[in-house]
From TrEMBL:
Lineage: Bacteria, Pseudomonadati, Bacteroidota, Cytophagia, Cytophagales
Gene3D superfamilies: Helix-hairpin-Helix base-excision DNA repair enzymes (C-terminal) (1.10.1670.10), Hypothetical protein, domain 2 (1.10.340.30), Nucleoside Triphosphate Pyrophosphohydrolase (3.90.79.10)
Primary role: Adenine glycosylase active on G-A mispairs. MutY also corrects error-prone DNA synthesis past GO lesions which are due to the oxidatively damaged form of guanine: 7,8-dihydro-8-oxoguanine (8-oxo-dGTP).
Iron-sulfur keyword on record: yes
Protein's recorded name: Adenine DNA glycosylase
Amino acid sequence: MYAGQKVPIQNVSPCPVSCSLENWGHKGSPLFWFCNTFYTIRLASHFFFKPLYIKPLPLSVLAPAHPYFAQALLEWYPRHRRDLPWRHTRDPYAIWLSEVILQQTRVKQGLPYYLDFVTTYPTVHDLAAAAEDEVLRHWQGLGYYSRARNMHHTAQQVVREYDGLFPNTYHDLLKLRGVGQYTAAAIASFAFGEKVAVLDGNVYRVLSRVFGITSDIAAPAPRKEFQALADTLIPAAAPDEFNQAIMEFGAIQCTPLKPDCLFCPLQSQCYAFQHGMVQELPVKSKAKAGRTRYFHYLVLRYGDTLYLKKRGPKDIWQGLYDFALTETDAAELPAAELVDIVAALGGQLTTNRAEEPVVSLRHVLSHQKVEARFYPVWLEHPLSSQALAASGLAPFTLEQAHKLPKPILIANYIDKSQK
């Protein structure tokens, strides 16, 4: 669904002297301050005077009305793009790694992980041959660990079924495990120059604002609407450059909360700017509030031995290591219950050590919040082989525990307890 337009937006100028970034000159010039003041007044007026809704325009009218949309982005991109390592390669493996790592992850956070992976696993064969625990250990701290597991399986699939060579078309890339429409489009475009438009959060935001699309981007149905528009706009001559440009534009110019509308090359075309709807677009329904879970960890220790267990499937942190866990509906665990749990695990509390403080940590995930309490438990004797088999726990030295793949919550506790 497209918001209506009072006038053709390509003919609307935000300033009576038709200012642009090129003719504003230095920020200290009188012309700049005149335009800046005019822009501020105009933007403020949008909060008080909303335009009337006019009949929406269809895609067939909107996309051809902006033949210079791609040109504006392609001119903007070389001057403003960030220097990122995956932009200096056509290697589909390196591009694929970057796309998987950057899903749900900011560039600043993902960059060191990318550099670590391409150094540790320089080829898809190296990644495929690695143990899953090792891959998860390198992924530790990024969250969404299913991405790491799928990435590992995909590497093995590429080696097993494609002799270590990534498929070179969008449709064949979709056959790889864990590769969805966005990732397939990115690899096909950036590595092989295929004319297929990418859709990520940045692209949704730019298209919503410039073209006045009011469809809820959190719903699955509007994807076809956005994809059709993006496919119409992408130029055949430089599809990879266009995809990089529109994503970068959304990341650093047309940002979610504080877009730089003042210096935007699409300002005169932008429906959201012209109609005071920059903060309203894109439309995205809020996700349901996540639940709160209460984790009580028993940090069982005997001498230099620390007991941990590998988490099973069908819950968060699959395949990662944590301590003996009891989950309850309350934030507190009575002392008597703590003793009973230790006894059930086959352990006996020692009386030769002073009581250590309980540590509380919080970890927020996308769909739930974990309130964790860590109870240091020193044992009188090591756990028997029968107790280990029944509980799933295994003994590790502190050095070994540091090398295990763990949720960041557990890693933070271990680091905190050593200080």
